[in-house]
């Protein structure tokens, strides 16, 4: 089966007469369109477009265009026979950091999705990986801690989430009997989300500790809290997520007063249409803590 | 015999997330660590680490890491027999399916980890991917729904988890006013874990429906439940996970009596040492539901 995303990009560039306008039409960045054309040319082993004197399809490109037009005609007939196909809900592919997804995300976007019949295709990525996916045109928007805007995209600050170093009271008594001392940090097992997670290192640096420390790796927000609740380690957890257990005294800070503020930013392509604007407005109303 | 000083340097660089911190942990200079990694790569004829976008082991490097973990496990047994050998915490890399990690996993393994100072390196994978990682030597054990044993590994049945098709009562009234009919399934947004997740399809087939249906994609256990709680769709959730919300009436089945039983199996290499045996015994005591 051909990759119709690549063919669709080619058709849009020819129809719209340019990469940027094609990007607008497809809800993609100019560079994402350009990458799709390149991918198509690599696959084909020859160019599909000539850039000068004017943008135009090569003979091979024209063959592909004819093919996609035929497919579009067939789809049109198919839709007539199966009318429910046509009313397909829009689907939005979005990269979201795990902790937001585990806490406030669904509540914030739920009402709009319900009203509009909007379907979401979530990709769970922390930090730079999500932004790279946006740059590559793989997702339409990205929620992450990076304030670095991408050319062609807008970046909206949503506030900060506050992370506390939490463990069970029994764990704290056993591993931090004298509080957060270097000696305790050297031996107390921590919980770290993954190899790229810097929160634990930032927390220890903030406490003045820069040595080695033992840790579990757990790339799941809920699993992370489950490990902490099972007394396996202490870890940086958003208070928004841990509140029920903190309120019941099942989790407590091993270093009261030491917290990390993690800012969150919402990145999305300009000219992505009205739905993304409304989603952005919905996210803007969230009271992060 | 391999040069374990080189392997130890590799393990330290990956665990500490950098050459300088690895040097601190090993009591070596950064350049000594770097030389050991280079020596290892020369010996192997290929890189063991990628430096960009982030420091991470190559597939070959990950194999070496897994090997050194297994050696450390065996050393741990040896140290018990010869207590004068100095002790360091072993670390075990394990693939676990997301729903187990979100529910019973930590509680089951927590006591043993606490007693033995065992550190866990979790990889969240569903189904066949986890087994492939075990076969590739990337993990020491794997918890998944596949009963297919791997040559050289043992496979222990742990029981089954029961999945119910859950949504908010408001969602059920809106989308399933006449119960689980084909017409309702055709239009009601479902929630699916990922492109390889077959639970939703199995559930619909069990209800006699085989047509298309709209769905959100959400590759996170806690996010999955959050989407359902926000009224964005209905989805197959383990009752173990949803129980608090079901008890409070915030989530309910859209097709009472229709459930899916998903068996769980624990796969691990034979001759992995006594710790894996005890872990297996601890998992065997879990009462899955």
From TrEMBL, chains A, B:
Q: Which PROSITE patterns match?
A: HTH_LYSR
> InterPro entries of this UniProt entry?
ArgP, LTTR, LysR_HTH_N, LysR_subst-bd, WH-like_DNA-bd_sf, WH_DNA-bd_sf
MF annotations from Gene Ontology: DNA binding; DNA-binding transcription factor activity
> In terms of domain of life, where is this protein from?
Bacteria
UniProt cross-references to Gene3D superfamilies, sorted A to Z: Periplasmic binding protein-like II, Winged helix-like DNA-binding domain superfamily/Winged helix DNA-binding domain
Pfam families noted in UniProt:
HTH_1 (PF00126), LysR_substrate (PF03466)
Q: Which UniProt keywords apply?
A: DNA-binding, Transcription, Transcription regulation
Start and end of every HTH lysR-type domain?
A: 2-58
Q: Which family does it belong to?
A: Belongs to the LysR transcriptional regulatory family.
Name of protein: LysR family transcriptional regulator (Chromosome initiation inhibitor)
